[in-house]
Amino acid sequence: MKVFAISDLHLSINSNKPMNIFGPVWENYLEEIEQSWNENVEENDVVLIPGDISWAMKLIDAIPDLEFIGKFKGKKIILRGNHDYWWSSISGVRRELPSNMFAIQNDAIKIGDYIFCGTRGWTVPEVEHKTPDDEKIYKREVIRLELSLLDAKRLQTNNEKIIVMMHYPPFNSKVEDSDFTKTIEKFNVEKVVYGHLHSYDKKQKLILTKNNVTYYLTSCDLVGNKLIKIV
After folding, report:
1. Model pTM?
2. CATH number of the domain within which 132 lies
3. Of the four, 25, 28, 87, 160, which is 20 to 30 A from 199 by CA?
4. What is the domain range of residue 82?
């Protein structure tokens, strides 16, 4: 079983919201993702999609976008991003997912020798939080990350490897320690995938290792609209 990741697809299959207004990297990007998917992924593989999946505002309008992902090979695990306004109740989302798609929200799922868990996350400040609300959300997301990791540990019956999904980067632009990275390290996680950053953030490293944890930035426009192999 191989594990791939790609994030920030910003799909709008049944609506008029072209992504190419954000630059040439978005020209024919869905065709490029489809080609990469078809060339690399087999039915027993897993593809992680950590957020910003659809521009839809309501779940019913996101269904065509979910079905677009569902038609590809492999098991897909999705996580909510900051633009996924259609994602309200987790039970509602799970009811509408194709049979080969799974949604994570502060919990975990085991597939083969791996356990996948995570939470959306929040902006990690360079110095301090901009507002009290930012600090409140940040602390709440740290708690949610720990809850998901506790659920992963519950599922870990045969020393399975844990892979964390987050939408926001778990550190600031200086890659400094944060409550997210400290929590990840406390649970002996080896790999983390995230997105949120885009082509204007090219200074960010796509793969980096910090305190024995490897972090993968997988926003589709930053990775050339190709799936990144994690395992």
Report:
1. 0.94
2. 3.60.21.10
3. 87
4. 3-229
